[in-house]
Design goal:
By secondary structure, this protein is mainly alpha-helical. It is about 60% helix and about 5% strand. A two-stranded antiparallel sheet has the order 1-2. Strand 1 and strand 2 form a beta hairpin. Helix 3 packs across helix 5. The longest helix has 30 residues.
């Protein structure tokens, strides 16, 4: 299981390095005294052509940290699912985190009470990951039911799904807790 933790550490480095790079890029463009910032644009070689954007579009892109956080959340969840499948001797885990998480926990005679924020916390992570992975960024009727079934804080159909840095850290902490409690601890 060291592979999952090596990948987890690489993903953590990616997150923090990208946050640093985004901040430096924002600071760079804010510090320049451009004669006409509304007319400024950037371009860079991309494949066989050029990627071109107005400066304001570029700055908007590096201000969009939620896309970075969602990417890290989706990849973290994939690492957790992959580690679970390997531990359960499955090609792929089937069903939701409640089901395969319980199977993992049973292997160590543990329960959801032993996992940070319990089953409700794990299901919330899965719901948020789903909203970003499928491009909706909204709570759907299945998510409302999943959250209600485990006693997680209620959300309504159509509620926007957001993702702050602190929420990302909390969600990754819950995933790591499930893996560690299930006997997939860092070596």
């Amino acid at each position: 299981m060291s592979d999952v933790w090596d990948s987890w550490a690489e993903l953590t480095r990616f997150l923090e390095s990208a946050r640093l790079a985004f901040a430096r890029e924002r600071n760079l463009w804010q510090s320049l005294e451009l004669a006409d910032p509304d007319q400024a644009s950037i371009r860079v070689r991309s494949g066989g052509g050029w990627y071109k954007a107005r400066l304001d579009q570029h700055v908007d892109a590096v201000n969009d940290e939620i896309t970075l956080y969602a990417s890290v959340l989706i990849h973290s969840y994939a690492l957790m699912e992959s580690a679970a499948a390997e531990a359960l001797s499955m090609n792929r885990v089937k069903g939701g985190v409640s089901g395969w998480g319980r199977l993992l926990l049973n292997k160590t005679s543990s329960s959801w009470d032993d996992v940070r924020d319990g089953e409700a916390g794990a299901v919330e992570v899965a719901v948020v990951r789903h909203a970003f992975a499928h491009g909706t960024r909204e709570i759907d009727s299945d998510a409302v039911k999943q959250l209600a079934d485990v006693g997680a804080p209620a959300r309504e159909v159509g509620d926007a799904v957001t993702l702050t840095y602190s929420e990302l850290l909390a969600y990754r902490g819950r995933m790591a807790s499930l893996l560690n409690t299930s006997g997939l601890a860092r070596s």
